[in-house]
Specification:
Length: about 375
Amino acid sequence: MEKIVDIIEAMAHEKNLPLEVAVDAFREALVKTAKRCVSYSSHFEATVDMDRKDYRVEQIITVVKDSDERFETEPDSVISLDEAQDEYGSDIELGDELRSDFILEEHGRTASYNLFRELQYHIQRQVEQTLFEKYREKVGQVMIGTVNRVDDKENTFIEIGELKGILSQRNRIKGEKFKLGDTVKALLRYVSIDPEFGMFLELTRTSPKFLEKLMEKEVPEIADETVEIVASARIPGQRAKISLKTDFPNIDPIGAAVGVKGIRINAVSSELNGENIDCVEHSPIPEVFITRALSPAIIQSLKITNGKEKKVLVNITGDQKAKAIGRSGINIRLASMLTGYTIELNEIEGITDRTGERSGKTFGEIEKTTNTDALADLFK
């Protein structure tokens, strides 16, 4: 018995498992082995004393009524009241448990072999469960690993700790290619178990959350929550928009995110294969937020046409329309994703200069007054 308990300790150490977890696996293996030796409908209970390096397995038979349905489903785990009283005495009552020791050694080498196989199986299940729980807590975090294989489907296999991560082509930024030995950063989407790959980590570099996590690592103000990321939108590898806010009046959220000479935002952009990142100051007023999200375009006015369905009509001059739409519609798509509003553009006549003032024949020239008499009363 001492030898078996020593094996448990050695396996726990080898598999980097807590001793309590290995002992639980041993108990389960004992019960499964006992059922193999007797019957699968029998009930057993195993106890392990690590201090005394001893274990005990007991078979449990419950006293029940003759009409109990367990006589059909679990015949070896129950006994009728009359039969129990005849065999064990008249003081036996319904619900009593009759326990008898199961001695593993009495069942020969086959029982010992089965116990060892069951123990290996349950230890491995515990290892997998521990790993699953460990990495499930890291879902949504940035993982760093080394590329060890790229298959013919362009799936990139990355070594991360005890498990392998898989960065599929659809989760990779367009144009990215990795080779053996490359160090890769990616966001952990979820932990999965697959018949082909076993337990693996699904990784992504295209999620907006990946952008947010990179910003958090690069910008201390975001990490300490003085600046908050409200929302983000990406078209991976091309362009992204991120909205920021702060409750501290002495902090500029856009300046903090961009950094001196753009050093912070450029570091994130470099990690994302040169993706352009626009930082937008968030506003709780939808009209203001939408106006900022459509930058660099300067709009003239907007109206929320359907608050429930989040639809907005934006009036914009012809010279700003191309900026609002962006190349291949990228700017308006990102603004829509960032704000959550469906944006419809309405082109109006005139042109908008860099100050945002509109001019044109239809609306006439804007007259500027030089008469300051109306202000005189303010300085009396």
